[in-house]
Amino acid sequence: MYNILLFGETGSGKSTLINYFTNFFLGGSLTNLKVAIPTKHHKATEKWNYSEKDLHDSSKSKTRDCIDYVFTKDGITFNFIDTPGLSDTEGTVKDDENVIKIMAAAEKKENLSAIIIVINGTVARATVNLRNTLTLLKGSVPDVLLDNLLVVLTNCSKATANFDLKQLKPWDVPKENVFHMNNSALSIPVQRWKDDEDIMEDLVAHWNKSMKAVKAITTKIKQLGYKATHAFRDMRVKRNKIKAELHSILLEVKKLQTLQDELNGAQGAEKDVANDIQKYSNYKQTKVVKYVEMEDTPYHSTICMTHSKICHENCSLEYTSELGDEIFMHCKCMRYEANCRKCGCDHSTHYHDTKKPVKKKKTIESILHDVKALYDQNTSKKLDLEKKISDLSADIEALKHALDVKEADIEKCCEDLKTLCSQFNFVDELQSIIDTMERDARTLTNVEARKDANCRISNIAQLANKLSAN
Question: Which segments constitute the G domain (predicted)?
């Protein structure tokens, strides 16, 4: 079976071309038209499923889905796949939906013999809609199928065609792959020509030339053979992966903002805790204490036991070990008096010793336990915060690395897609997601997260421009 995919702008004549093929294969004629797809002026005569709507509105695509029209002649089967028209008044979103439908239909067939691009041949200069359609076409057809491109210029003959094939550049379609058809027989009501010999004469001539063109197209299709459609599948897989990775980047950038906010919060808390640690670091207090310590001497002295005080140093009396000995009544410190002149005590409180009390000072450290508790609490917090900061920093770096990997994967997928379809429009493919990323980036309140997001958006935009420019 020869599978043939029809591509074209809304109103270019794809469905009418199918009807011409219907007449060619089913033996139709001007007076016995075979209509597979209903038109503004003709009802369907054949029992095919079709998806034609808005037949009287030339600004809208009549075909809503990809429909197969299968014909067999001389034991050879041809399957013509009619597709939704591009660049109608329903906008770019509908175009994107239709392109996905068309590429899915092509992929499903496993092989194609030809892709027929249907263009209104009366158009001399490409309109905005036609330029948009050609851009969509060029970005949808894998390079492996470019040798199987056929162009059908409708509403004209070879002599009257105005369309300049240079507008298909960089596609280079050989002249032998370009066909002309005047489809006036199906574009005007029968009432206008059935009783008018002049119109009838013109229509017969147009009809015969169109049938001749149809036959030539089928002959060319057989010559082209078959091309596998796995490139459509590969393009779909690459496009889906690019979109999935970009969507993942959107989510990860938001996660990066959350982590960066947590990190900034932890760093701020660490500074506060560090200040508190400094504030509570004086939990130790010191004070100087005076005390008396007995030190050895090479002589004995008279000492008051009550006051631990030397009343007569280096006493000249004979040493006695008895406390309160009457000998002390003759000590220089109390001689001729009842009480000691130094301490005011009587002799009974005095004794001899080879030591003397020495007044000393020492510094004693005391701990303010309530302040120490606050110091320890904040020290513990600081350790916890330092670990949190370390973990968050590691998470952020890991997330940035993951984003870098995703960017590299996107670039690799784009390059692979460029290899599959050299005219793929990366700007158109990526612009919507770039717009979404830019919109989301404006909602980021973290400076570092926004800076990282803007850098990644710029990288993707530059990649799209670079690949589309080549």
Answer: 4-124
Q: How many residues can be counted in the chain?
A: 470
pLDDT tens per residue across span 243-254:
899 899 988 988
In degrees to the nearest 10, what's the CA dihedral of 400, 401, 405, 406? -20
Look up residue 318 and give its DSSP letter.
Answer: P
Name the token pair of 271: 């500074």
At 52 the pLDDT is: 46
Please state, as a whole number, how many other Cβ atoms lie within 10 Å of the Cβ of residue 383: 11
Query: What DSSP element (H or E) covers 438?
Result: helix 426-442
What stretches in the chain show pLDDT beneath 70? Answer: 50-63, 89, 470
Say what the pLDDT of residue 50 is: 58
pTM of full prediction above 0.85: no
Which pairing describes strands 309-312 and 227-228: parallel, antiparallel, or unpaired? unpaired
For residue 269, the tally of other CB atoms under 10 A from its CB is 16
Is the torsion defined by CA of 17, 22, 25, 29 positive or negative?
negative
**Residue 126 to residue 438: CA distance in whole angstroms:** 33
